[in-house]
Amino acid sequence: MLPWESQRLAAVVAALGVAGAGTIVRGSAGRMLVWGGVLVALGISIAAWRSADVALPVLRDRFEGEVSGTVEAVEIRSGRGQVRFQLAPDDPGLPPHVRISLKANVPAGLVPGAKVTVRAMLLPPAGPSFPGGYDFARREWFDQLGATGYPLGPTVITRKAPPPAGVEAWLDDLRARLTVRIETVVGGDAGAISAAFVTGDQGGISTATNLAMRYSGMAHLLSISGVHIAIVVGGTMWITRALLALSPWIALRWPLKAISAGTAAVAGIGYTILAGAQVPTVRSCIGTVIVLLGVIMGREALSLRLLAGGGFVIMAVRPEALLGPSFQLTFAAVTGLVALFNSRLGRWLSAPRQNAGWVSRTLQHLAGLLVTGVIAEALLSATALFHFNQTGAYGVFANLLAIPWTSFVVMPLLVVALLLDPLGIAAPAWWALGKSMDALIALAVWVAGWPGSVVRVGLMPITAYALLVGGGLWLFIWQGRARWLGAVPVVIGAVMALTSHPPDLLVSADGHHVAVLLDAYDDEGPRLALLRDRTGDYLRDVWGGVTASTADAAIADLPNADCTVDACVARVGTGRSAIRLLATLSKDRIGQPKFGPACAAADIVVSERRLPGWCKPRWLKLDRTALETSGAVAIWLAGRRVETVGELTGDHPWMPQPRVWRPRAGGASGAGRALRAGRPAEAAPNPDEPTY
345 near 475, Cβ under 8 Å? Predict the structure, then answer.
């Protein structure tokens, strides 16, 4: 999160200074300062080492030509009509690993180990589409992908893949065959989700079902994580203990609880390996194994210390996981639930009532499910709103039905079907599995269709999210009345998140796309006006999410816009904060006699080309030269606030663009100074002035 190396070094020095100060303080406070300072310094150092350790060459500019190499991995995304394969190019001038996406069926023979040749367009890893957005370049850096692209011709198999060799290749082949088998025998989205539960491959799930699961708050079921690991581990532990207890001699002499916990740990690890050892699955498996070790050793199974140990292991080995939404979603929910069941309320909800009637016990279980769902959904929603700008409003109610249905109906049927399939007698189990999965999908579609099923919030300030996280941790960790002090930052963070104003203007990293948030509201909410009609769906969705609006308007259609085939001028904003925007549309040269006065009359000029020095707008000049340094830009007209991707990424290696500036304290942001045209901003333009 610290963008510049000087800041990271300063943080290490400060942490070591705290540790040094702790040596002169007696008692537990001194030990806390020493260990806290040392661990912070080590954490920053491990993150820096990890960034350097995975470093591989990255494509700096687009490449168009023939690419030959060996297929390393194939991902079939039939639900989106797409196939992606990772390639190790033979050309030493290309990155060691690239990924190509096909909008077609899988070519025959396209499997790991095959040699292929394809004419392709390769592009450098893309940074965030807005400051603070999801950083694909960072993810691909740690995945060691140097480029992504698409084919410009057919993919030709020049040599067939050899038979799978080694355990990893055998597992990949088994995983692929299992996915195809389950999707074929069950069919449709029910088969695709069933396969995802076993192998982790979500490629066959249609976009409509994905959206329904997301809007209903049930999307967590699609990714093999805590719920699935808990079902497998819990089921294995229960069955093992029940079978061993059938023998009185064993039950009286053997530690059944420890044996069943060890067997469950082996089952959980095996399931994780079978599912492809994805990051969420590995994280859940580590946490579960730590809990089972606590059971074996006779320690408290659900404690914040064991959870902290699992997080410590992950961050020490893969520190980049900390910034991912998956890590934050998992640990937010689990930390909250562990804290809940260690509290007085949680102990009351989970306390056994052997002498109570079945009605009382049923009500207790229902209350436990409801409270658990509310706590988990609240924590998940905060993280989802920060990363995705939207969350399902009725996830608590949907999961009250979905999780028990998945635990006690879907997963057992899936296990039975897989066990009976080699014997050729699994048809009834497959049929029942398909019907149960159809019911799960129907529940998601039904809940997603409720009025107000999706809560949308614009760009959440990082300060608001930090207050929510910090206050939540205070509430969970401290005991006694002091814990309620954590509610203060939580409330402040929530107010900041709900009242923050989204950016008024968004500019893509290449200057090709521009979006303006309209002040006018209609019955369907705020709208986003785009510069180009052919803006892709992805950018529309992302920019619409960050502004909590619908990207269905055009700048050219605004009443205060004047557009030609070459450029577009529009008045943006209202009152004293209004500015005049000039954006180029074509690549044709416009002479200085026409374009010079237009630049001078504009407050902001945006272009995907390099503009000459005589183009001097009043405030910002966002041409190719500036955007190569800054990346995507977000602008708030009130206060003339500017944020850029470059300012937030700094000198981290996954943003390869050259940097010729550094942010300095005081005045406008570093990005604003870097992009400033050289003259101070003037008063808002007169709407009656002639436009170009």
Answer: no
Alpha carbon distance 221, 496 (integer Å): 31
590, two tokens: 């416009």
Distance CA 87, CA 70 (A): 6
Among 691, 602, 654, smallest CA distance to 126 is for: 654
Q: Which residues contact 355 (CB under 8 A, 6 or more apart)?
A: none
**Which alpha helices (DSSP H) does 117-275 contain, by range?**
136-142, 167-186, 188-199, 207-215, 226-244, 248-253, 256-274
Q: What is the CA radius of gyration of the chain?
A: 28
Check: CB of residue 73 under 8 Å from CB of residue 83.
no
* Whether the Cβ atoms of residue 292 and residue 343 lie closer than 8 Å to each other: no
Q: Rounded to whole angstroms, how far apart are CA atoms 340 and 233? A: 22
pLDDT per 10-residue tile (average), the chain, 692 residues: 92 96 91 95 94 92 91 81 89 93 81 91 91 90 93 90 76 83 90 88 86 86 78 88 90 89 90 77 78 78 77 88 85 86 81 74 80 83 88 84 87 89 91 94 93 86 93 88 91 92 92 86 72 88 89 87 90 87 88 88 93 91 91 92 91 68 39 36 36 32
pLDDT of residue 537: 86
Answer for the pair 399, 218: CB distance below 8 angstroms, yes or no.
yes
For residue 76, the cross-strand partners are 83
Structure tokens at 311: 């997080």
Distance (Å, whole) CA 685 – CA 579? 7
- How many angstroms separate the CA atoms of 70 and 47, rounded? 31
Neighbours of 188 (CB within 10 A): 17
Q: Which of these, 345, 333, 347, lies nearest to 300 by C-alpha position?
A: 347
Tell me the backbone φ, ψ of residue 157, rounded to 5 degrees: -85, 115
Query: Directed axis angle between helix 411-420 and helix 188-199, to 10°?
Result: 80
- 652 CA to centre of own chain: 19
Beta bridge partners of 529: 516, 553
50 Cβ contact partners less than 8 Å away, ≥ 6 residues apart: 142, 318, 319, 320
233: its two tokens? 């581990």
Whole-prediction pTM: 0.81
Residues pairing with 73 in the sheet: 86
